[in-house]
Amino acid sequence: HVVEGQKYELGAIDVKQDYEQAAKYFAKAASQGIAEGIYNLARLTDRGLGVKKDHNLALKLLEQAAAQPPQNPIFKQSPNVGVAEAEHALGVRYFEGITVRKDLSVAAYWYQRAADHGNALAANNLGSMYLDGLAVDKDLEKAEQLLELAARRGDPLAMLTLAELLLSKNNFQMAKIWYDRACEAGNVVAQENRDQFAKKIEESQQFISQCSPNKLEEANAVEYFIGLFRTKHAPSVLSDHSYIKDYKMLSEHANRGSITAKQLCDALDNFAQALNILLLSESLTEKQEDMFVHELSQCYRIEHIVAQIPCQLHKRVSEVVDRVLCRCTKESNSIASQLDEDVRLCYATLHMNSYELIDQFLAPCKQKYPKSIYFFLASGAANGFLRRPDIGLYNINNGLEIEPDNCELLYHKAVLLRHLGIDIDEAIKAYQTFLRVAPKDHRKVPEAYYEMAICYIQGYTPNVAIDWVKKLYVEGQQAEKLQLPCFLPYKSDNIAYLKPMFDMEFVQNTKPVIDNNRKQRLTDPHRVEVIEKHREWEGKTLQEKHNPGYTVISSTLKPRVKKQTAKSLIGLKPIALREMDPTKDQVYNGYVLSVTIIDETYSWIPSIHLVIEDENFDCERMLVYNFPEEQGEYLISKLYTIGSKMDIINPYLRIGANDMKPTIRVDDFSSIVMQSESERILNMCRYCCKANASKICSQCQQAHYCSKECQIMDWKLYKHKLICKNK
Length: 727
Prior knowledge:
Blueprint: H1 2-10, H2 19-31, H3 35-47, H4 55-66, H5 83-96, H6 104-116, H7 120-132, H8 140-152, H9 156-168, H10 172-184, H11 188-192, H12 194-210, H13 213-228, H14 247-255, H15 259-278, H16 286-303, H17 314-330, H18 338-350, H19 355-368, H20 373-385, H21 389-402, H22 407-420, H23 424-437, H24 445-459, H25 462-480, H26 493-498, H27 505-508, H28 518-522, H29 525-546, E1 573-575, E2 586-587, E3 591-599, E4 608-613, E5 619-624, H30 632-639, E6 645-649, E7 652-655, E8 662-666, E9 672-674, E10 695-696, E11 704-705, H31 708-716
Parallel strand pairs: 1-3, 5-8
Antiparallel strand pairs: 2-7, 3-4, 3-6, 4-5, 6-9, 7-8, 10-11
Helix pairs in contact: 1-2, 2-3, 3-4, 4-5, 5-6, 6-7, 7-8, 8-9, 9-10, 10-12, 14-15, 15-16, 16-18, 17-18, 19-20, 20-21, 20-22, 21-22, 22-23, 23-24, 24-25
């Protein structure tokens, strides 16, 4: 049904394009629970092609498709097409606020699921969120890993973004490689700007080669702080920390006199009441809905950050708020009432990430409830994110006329004055006013010190600013020590901007880098996927050995290209895995790939499956064919073992016929040259790959580990349980 539906959707030689027929076939597939059919029907329903346009039904269909198993129900090694695509589509919906409450945290959740299930677009989108710190903590390492994962999966946009990120890190070789790949993959922007990018690389290389270390440090600092002002304005990162679990601790701090802890406890009391009402039954009476809205609004008034609505309840909460708002709007010509004010506050807070929508929604709210500071506060924040600090400031000042000592209003006033940039001294005074009024453990106190330091960087010459920046940075660090435990470790993007000014390691980061950070590579999503998939396969092989009735079905196709035979390493150029295009079937004639085996095999039929790692700690699957069958047992037990090193002549990167994943394939057994036994890594740790690991897994008696931490990570991240059996 899916194939027939696709024929009608796209049109074929013998089939005229017909969306209505396509929708019928997809609906038949959907009725059988086929994820691809459900997803395709959702696409057509969302666009009104062949069926009535219905965004809400499309949303339900996407959720239904995303709930299917990620693996194909018949061919377990293959993905269940439609699942990851639906997860990505849900991420886009929540990121853009399409027929759902815009929620970047929920978008990140769906992008992560889709990326885990193989979707390239989702990996790119999530990487971009980490790059900009949108609803997640800004993390350039994680951003790079995700962008590389998306690029490896063939996303041209990710290739370009990754190239630009690598250029900013002065990794010129890989920046050029990924930029070229973006061009070849059809990225129009990359193609149009190819000459400019090449010029940037050339200028950066020339600049670095001519710079003295001191000059380089100075130039890097300038570039670093210019980057500060390019940072996107984004909502504060909502912590995944559960404040409800901290209630006892907060109560103790409140009893000792902490105003902040008391506010958090009061807000949690209201939030707990709201959740209890919601969970009473599947359907609430109007009175129960009104009580829910009142309790939730009280929580938002006191401290909105504790209202961490579980993902599965988001939709229900929005529906209740929408119903109450609809009732209030219709009843008595929408006269002013406590319930009407409460539900408007809930609606505004729930949709706060949809800035334009909320700015328009708040206009009549401010007129109707001119004494409610929360509408002015929300309007100020929304306009700040819309890069309209002047309008935001006007609203905040209106709120301060009602409540001059409100900490939230005072803090937002300072932030908006800083973004306005007209009078930096006025912004500094506003921060000082906030610090005089706010409790010492208010969660924004350290941030106020750091942002004041940024004000000095923005508004004063370096010789004047430096002493103030140092002083304020230290005061911010001291203020962190007074924070409640639930706000520690303290999170602030500004720390990342200020810390390098007092950190000598900053200088080292200006030099050209080849990222050999093993710790970073160990958690690389591609590495995790390669090792986990390899162990799934080997686990089934072990199961076959221990259970004679169990059979692993395997097959292979002949290589698409034939490589030249070379018997010697003389004259060959070295190549690394990252220099081989993971999206292309290609033999790299004239090159040699030097690798270490980091995960072994338990069978040689139809091929020997290995995981290899190169000098950059990049890893890939490797398949060896066409060896003498009588040598199979010897090869897997004595030669191709963990820690062994080899050189692969004229390496062939093969794109899998079924999974479309890259693999180093060897069809000419003689093109593998084993390195000396003295080069072998003895007792290699199965997680970090270091030598002389003294601990051994007590169950399989095979795996070596450096430490308990390595063993735990191998179990959690690489799924050691899959192969934890005696051979």
